[in-house]
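Sequence only, no structure available. Ideas?
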Amino acid sequence: MSKTRVYQLAKELDISSKELISKLEEYDVEVTNHMSTLEDDIIEIIKELYKSNEGKSESMDSTEDENAIGLPESISVKDFCDKIGKTVTDVMTKLVSMGVFATINQEIDFETAEALALEFNIDVKLEGAEEEEAEYGIEDFEDDPKDLKDRPPVITVMGHVDHGKTSLLDAIRETNVTAREAGGITQHIGASEVYVDGKKIVFLDTPGHEAFTSMRARGASLTDIAILVVAADDGVMPQTKEAINHAKAAGVPIIVAINKMDKPGSNPDRVKQELSEHGVLVEDWGGDTISVPVSALKGEGIDNLLEMIVLAAEMQELKANPNRLGAGVVIEAKLDKSRGPVATVLVQKGNLKVGDPIVAGASFGRVRAMINDKGKNIKKANPSTAVEILGLSDVPNAGDTFNAVKSDKLARQIGEKRKAKFREANLNSTTKVSLEDLFMHIQEGEVKELNIIVKADVQGSVQAVKQSLAKLSNDEVKINMIHGGVGTVTESDILLASASNAIIIGFNVRPSSAVSSMAERESVDVRIYRVIYEAIEDVQKAMKGMLDPEFKEVVIGKSEVRATFKVPNIGTIAGAYVKEGKMARNAKMRLVRDGIVIFEGDVSSLKRFKDDAKEVQTGYECGIGIANYNDLREGDIIEAYIIEEIKRD
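Reply:
I predicted one. Tokens follow.
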């Protein structure tokens, strides 16, 4: 439609031309500089549509607006007084009687405002609530049974930290994940697909330690069957009990894999008896839970386990509609320096295609590429398919739902609306503390709250750390998680920690030298960990006054990899330039790439030209070999560090 006719029509309908243009866009009518022969027909249709819609909404809104005052999701006490026409004194008195102590300029949420308004017999409503509830543009309808097709089962592998979950998956996938994991503990949820007699099974691997309770619970809620791995020589352990509870809470059937049957002390009957004490009765004992003896190490019983999975899946008659816009859950998300935000998602219904506009939590975008578990690019993902997607505006949270929508504009609108909603709920602060002197501050009554900032390499770990630490709050000190994010510790994190008197806990990340120096200047306590439960234990000990740091890591030098050389029978050697401190033969080496710790190990060789060297100082070049590691790349940072014993008075 031409711009001239738009202005004429807007005047006739008594609305702004801007409002009319946005209304036209909803009906895919393009506004141009040229006249069209169809314009008169379009104008008549728009008049009818606009007037009928406006009539309905006006009649509905008028009755509602007569009784209810519109309030935003959060509002200052002063603005609330103005809205309801009451004095500040009256409102503050009611707030105190409700147990809410707020200043005149402090924000209160809608729930508090609603309860407060009821005290004055005034009805209020959430502004834009109708739009929020419907979140128009996201498909939400019950599928017709005729449209449903069989879909593959999604399996969660659960169990205690060292009972062989990853080894069992390795035996199934014929890959070796354990060698790449820190201390043999799986730190992030992964997804993989296997085929049994032509039938696909999707496996989600959840971490084993109790620190990852939230991640495991999320994994169980995504899945159709839970494989409970119990070591035949160890029996039911604390994390085994957690796994049982999560599977039961999610209503997921359990198949017990009794692992390590090849070990001399294996006793499957003891395992079955201990399981029965926790409400899991296996078929051998008259129950309905399938149990399969396996040995992940020797590959025994794996085929039988897979057959049982297929059988259990067939009994559930799993179905989904593949012919609708894709929807599902974000399993994991991270920020990749070269690819931007990367999310691993599980498609639960519909199909997701490359090019689809998408909204995931508060992130939005268009699917630029999809990569399956084998690392291959694919064009389309059907139900029960786990894929990595690129093209989002931000890193979504693990556990967020995602939806494909009809247009980029719609995805942006929904994402921006959600982002504004999330932005309104953040920040807390108090006085400068470190873990060492935390107990002293508690005893002196100075600290009632401990503010913590969490940074980790992937979103799932951020959530696991935050939730685990939040549970440590007690009567003496409350733990506030004021910020959590993906990526290394940055200068803005230090500024936030300094302003809000927080300590920073980093998991599997390394701050740069500039950031470390800034932390020292600002007296911000930055703690870096590679295993989450060590962070939890440290905070717990500090709160109880038991923190006793006996050893301290001291970084003695940093060098940058400027070239790599492959040496026969030795491996890859880094041609490095020492930027700070020194590289020493007796030190340990840490490889850092884009702020993320990739590997830690010993020095296999340190040379200056062709000669062996005990140490190489700042400003010199050297050749560095790291034992049992060859994936060195230009631009990597190699940190040399030693462990020093701290003598306490």
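The chain has a mean pLDDT of 79.
Hope that gets you unstuck.
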